[in-house]
Amino acid sequence: MGQIQLKQVTKSFGETQVIPPLDLTIEDGEFTVFVGPSGCGKSTLLRLIAGLEDITTGHIEIDGKDATDLVPAKRGLAMVFQSYALYPHMSVRKNIAFPLKMAGMDPAEIDKRIENAASVLNLTDYLDRRPGQLSGGQRQRVAIGRAIVREPAAFLFDEPLSNLDAALRVGMRLEISELHERLKTTMIYVTHDQVEAMTMADKIVVLRAGHIEQVGSPLELYHKPRNEFVAGFIGSPKMNIFGGAEAQKYGGTKAGIRPEHIDVSMTDGTWKGVVGVAEHLGSDTFIHVHETGLADMVTVRITGDISVRHGDTIYLTPQLEQMHKFDAQGLRIA
Amino acid sequence: MATKASRSAARLMMAPAVVLLLGWMLVPLIMTLWFSFRTYLPLRGGDQGWTGFDNYVRFVTSSAFWPAVQTTLVIVLGVLIITVCLGILLAILLDQPMWGQGVVRILVIAPFFVMPTVSALVWKNMFMDPVNGLFAHLWRFFGAEPVSWLSDAATPSIIMIVSWQWLPFATLILLTAIQSLDSEQLEAAEMDGAPHLKRFWYIILPHLSRAITIVILIQTIFLLAIFAEIFVTTGGAFGTRTLSYLIFQRVLESQNVGLGSAGGVYAIILANIVAIFLMRIVGKNLDN
Questions:
Q1: Which CATH number do you get for residue B60?
Q2: What is the domain extent for residue B171?
Q3: In this structure, are A182 and A271 located in the same domain?
């Protein structure tokens, strides 16, 4: 069980309010990702849920019970920190055992749970090492192991992958997703990386300056961003957003088109531009097109390879049904 | 990185300092060793030639030796326990954000800058004097009989004075160690259900263990040699004669340079044993 409800939660540090009144429900078993640019309050929100920070006003309910004034340990949540926060003077076994020992659990049961967690996380061979002797990915797994053994109502992840190198990050991303499939426990995951959000989440919460900009499934956010901010934040490469007369032609103050929804031709099309840098990834090619009269630079994504050179003239045609239109307030026009 | 030329230039540049330091150390060391094997009584016939290990045997078999060793141990251990325990407490307190932190920290460090002779005199005359001392006034205020500290409780008094001097040192080292503790570790422990005392016991104290070892070793080396505090307060009376004070008495009060030198050699060996441990631990610290 692990339904978490935030009701009119606010947080102020002194005079500055970092979280304006905020309502959010995280359903039991859901993988929820808080995503947003740095300083948007996503980590603060997680710490409020964890109980590491006191909320200024409002209520937090876990499984329908008011947890606003509960100390962190009593909330039944487990957290994985960005720095892993392993205890350096304890062996892996003792690290994982620590929360159970604090709970006064029977040593035989502790051993059983450690063996379980270690086999799930491939840590069996490392149980007697110190954290200092482990690689980044292994430390990450120990931190997750320490969280799993408590059998918490929900897991909280605070940017857990940001200290890993790119290859390892992809691997751990999969492992965490698989772990969620297996445990079916509520997970709240904070990241600034929208790729992590898109690939892992059941539900994404996009935050900006403490405000929730949109809540939805990854594809909902991709296809129907509620406003210009979400449109620009979700999707890689970024959506091309432009204003002016060209946007009004499509019926909005601003209009946006994703790089993958633009067709390219060397002979004719809606917009004419000059090729800048072309990034060849093999499977895709990202072409940065300048002098289109829309924005400084329009990014186009082409499946496969295309032979264009710096300085070539290129014609772009947007797929009209994929065009996003925004009003003067930046909100989506359906 | 360094070429042959730059290495030999470096050696040349360092040579004066090395020679000076070496001379500074070697001359007194060799003189001590030399005298320790001779019968040298400046007022009773002067240098009377070799005696072999006589001085060494006489020093350890004298009736004053074992009590002196015991006093030394009591004082060193007493000061270590007090400074480490209070140092940890003070370090935790000073680590809390509070108003006037900078001033408070300087005040806490201040005793370390007072010369041992001065601080011992201040304690002796202003605090522990059985007639005019602040403690005497305090005792009388509560209707109690003032304690004549330096004669009735001489060793505890000296432990108190020396602890007061060394507490800032312990606090300072432990404070910097506490400040280097990753706050996420404490938060993780909090999430794991460890209340304040358990967080201290399982997270903070192990984190401080190395700093505590260093404090203990450095202090031990200096505490084995305390002298001024004893000289100006009890003069070695009332069971406060430590090993270093005994050496002083053998040389200057008994006018037996040979015997005192032999004691000095024992002290050198003792200090070096501690120093070896210290070097190994500091070295280990630098490796990580």
A1: 1.10.3720.10
A2: 4-287
A3: no
A277 contact partners, CB below 8 Å, separation of at least 6: A287, A288, A310
pLDDT given at position A218: 92
Q: Which residue of B has its CA nearest to A147?
A: B192
CB–CB contact A89 B207 (8 Å): yes
Identify whether residues A85 and A219 lie together within a single domain.
yes
Total-model pTM: 0.79
Closest CA to B253 of B122, B64, B37: B64
* Order of all β-strands in the sheet with A211-216: A77-80, A154-158, A186-191, A31-35, A203-208, A211-216
Q: Within this chain, do residues A113 and A182 fall inside the same structural domain, yes or no?
A: yes
ipTM above 0.85, yes or no: no
Domains of chain B: total: 1
Residue of A nearest to B189 (CA): A99
The answer to whether B157 and B233 are in contact (CB under 8 A) is: yes
- Kindly report the CATH number assigned to the domain that includes residue A173: 3.40.50.300
- Residue B191 touches partner A, C-beta closer than 8 Å: yes
B253 and chain A: CB distance < 8 Å anywhere? no
Q: What is the pLDDT of residues B61-91, one digit of tens each?
A: 888 888 888 898 899 999 999 999 999 999 9
| Domain enclosing residue A276, as ranges | 237-333
Indicate whether A223 and A277 sit together in one domain. Answer: no
- Answer yes or no: do A150 and A241 share one domain: no
Contact B184 A89 (CB under 8 A): no
Neighbouring CB atoms inside 10 A of A112's CB total 12
Binning pLDDT at 50, 70 and 90, where does residue A64 land? confident
To the nearest whole Å, the CA of B100 is away from the closest chain A CA by 19
Domain count, chain A: 2
DSSP string, A3-23: -EEEEEEEEEETTEEEEEEEE
Residues of B whose CB is below 8 A from A89 = 206-207, 209
Give percent of chain A above pLDDT 70. Answer: 100
Angstrom distance (rounded) from CA B38 to CA B45 = 13
Q: Does any CB of chain B come closer than 8 Å to the CB of residue A315? A: no
pLDDT tens-place string over residues A213-272: 999 999 999 999 999 999 988 888 889 988 888 888 888 888 889 999 998 888 888 888
